[in-house]
User: Which sequence fits this backbone?
DNA sequence: TTGTAAGCGTTATCAC
DNA sequence: GTGATAACGCTTACAA
């Protein structure tokens, strides 16, 4: 007010000087980490108000503390896809719960080829990697190299990294057994993408050998324990529309038409059902369809999807809790979660 | 390798020493901000590899640079609600686009009573406030006090703050006019929550006067330009299930049953349609229903919702672009976006 | 209870 | 092209 010698924003040192106390005292007033005489406190606050000081600069504080209060969540692919996928959103939901005790912010990052190192430049305290596929693995290395606590959700990260896993293979096998027990022999599969190319095409042994998305591979392995020779088509994503497209491919030729279709996600399954309806096929009388995920689904009319219910929210919560643990200095531990098979009305006895 | 005198992580100074160069030189090798002789460069990189140095500490770098590369997005209420709301996810999608040139991370924060200052402790370069209601306004003050660039999406933040706005009132009036022109006179309204209490109850003048959610108030105002006396019930959120509940309330008594229901969101409208179907009412023959948002909707069967399509993705993109501008030092400007009315098959002539 | 002082790890500036 | 040095703004032992 007297001399305007500060074009720059005031610092805590300015406030301390104005209040006639040491910087450390001013600091303590804001952090509350020690007792301060009410009078001093008031003077500091008054000085802060006077100078328009809005509190300690978080950047400086996080350098000094060695903590930024931010946890990164690395999703593969475009963020838009993540937001559109109900399983991911449910998981994010659980993650915020699991992280709640840290009152940490969640930094959304995508794992893209070019910016694979974006995570390296972000001031984060820990990292949650989701669906660790080939591409994501590059991020994992960076993060580990940096010495940051990390939890991997549904990805193969090696034994040393705490993970949250799902019994994808076993759950897929359960679905397949149910369908087999209903008498089906001509079964076709719709898988999630095999790799980041996300090509919609028949799954050949060669393509499968080069697949990088663990979830896809594991679910397929489980299904093929029961139906070793079932033909499969990989979808380009987990979307209803994509399920429709693949469904049309599978149901095009009446001669080779399967009596059951097992899809690796509920959204794909709904799409297949739509494709069947287009062709005038009744579900489950003419075609049985099963999904995976157990998400709440609109648009199925009176049908209930046969599926395996995965603990999506729990997955996120478990990851959040591990991060919290590791930040507390305790070792992170791998959690194995299981799916629950749910019989619906979209599967029925084989009619031929 | 020789002496293990460093239990702590190596710093760039350690690397420089090991490589026999100045710290500043090592720094430049990592930042690429100046020319370095290939030989020196190699030596530095080798030293880094030797020491297991993974690059500059982002916390220190952001203090020094005054930039953290993080943009905060403040959502009101629980994050889970945000992830479940298609309009919000679409907007987030656009936001990532608008922010792309900054290659900034997105920090998700919620604006809760208790942690209203969480945003004050986060090392962010700019803030996007969404749906600035009474509660969110506290965050706004903190952010402005901190001198951070901020953009408000659909909130009343005063003329000084760059905003992204929607013509909610006009768009709502358009829908109402369409319904009035179809001959409807007994019209009931379903609004979004009025405030953070999110009470499901009849909208009284008193409750309306205390409402803090601008979107709700503006849309209601637009509708009431056409139907000044239409009774309204506020929903507790924008969810199909909530629409079903409110729908049941509105359709309970055949004597007072409206011939048309205008909902402030598509999800609520779908819920109302479900409630109507429960009661054996046909849409649009017995009841016309309109929504708002224009999101892609499953579960409507062959019906197409009459609604106003809002540019949700564009909203986010515009906000992102403003943030990018402001970070470049240019002034942020307010952008007014408009909705587009879309006639569907859920509205028809009044039958009485 | 308050003050002193030493960093936290980096990068910008300016000489050389 | 490289090096010395001074911040960046804060927190936290430790001393008084």
Assistant:
């Amino acid at each position: 007010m007297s001399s305007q010698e500060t074009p720059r924003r005031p610092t805590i040192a300015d406030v301390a000087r104005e209040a006639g106390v040491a910087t450390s005292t001013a600091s303590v007033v804001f952090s509350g980490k020690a007792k301060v005489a009410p009078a001093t406190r008031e003077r500091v606050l008054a000085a802060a108000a006077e100078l328009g000081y809005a509190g300690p600069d978080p950047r400086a504080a996080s350098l000094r503390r060695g903590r930024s209060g931010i946890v990164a969540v690395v999703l593969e692919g475009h963020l838009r896809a993540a937001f559109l996928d109900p399983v991911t959103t449910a998981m994010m939901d659980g993650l915020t719960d699991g992280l709640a005790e840290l009152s940490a912010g969640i930094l959304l990052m995508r794992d893209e080829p070019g910016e694979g190192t974006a995570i390296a430049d972000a001031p984060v305290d820990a990292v949650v990697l989701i669906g660790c596929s080939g591409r994501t693995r590059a991020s994992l290395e960076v993060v580990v190299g940096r010495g940051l606590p990390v939890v991997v959700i549904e990805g193969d990260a090696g034994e040393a990294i705490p993970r949250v896993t799902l019994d994808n293979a076993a759950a897929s096998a359960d679905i397949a057994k149910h369908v087999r027990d209903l008498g089906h022999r001509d079964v076709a599969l719709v898988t999630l993408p095999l790799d980041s190319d996300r090509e919609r095409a028949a799954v050949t042994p060669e393509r499968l050998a080069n697949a990088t998305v663990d979830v896809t591979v594991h679910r397929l392995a489980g299904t093929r324990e029961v139906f070793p020779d079932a033909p499969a088509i990989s979808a380009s994503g987990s979307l209803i529309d994509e399920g429709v497209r693949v469904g049309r491919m599978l149901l095009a030729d009446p001669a080779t038409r399967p009596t059951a279709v097992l899809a690796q996600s509920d959204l794909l399954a709904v799409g297949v059902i739509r494709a069947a309806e287009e062709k005038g096929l009744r579900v489950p009388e003419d075609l049985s369809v099963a999904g995976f995920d157990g998400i709440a689904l609109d648009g199925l009319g009176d049908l209930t999807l046969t599926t395996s219910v995965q603990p999506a929210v729990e997955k996120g919560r478990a990851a959040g809790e591990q991060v919290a643990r590791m930040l507390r200095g305790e070792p992170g531990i791998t959690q194995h979660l299981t799916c629950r098979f749910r019989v619906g009305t979209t599967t029925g006895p084989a009619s031929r």
In short: Chain A touches chain B through 48 residues (CB under 8 Å). Residues 21-25, 28, 34-37, 40, 60, 63-66 of chain A lie near DNA strand C (CB under 10 Å from a C1'). The CA atoms of residues 165 and 336 of chain A lie 5 Å apart. Residues 1-6 of chain A have pLDDT under 50 and may be disordered.
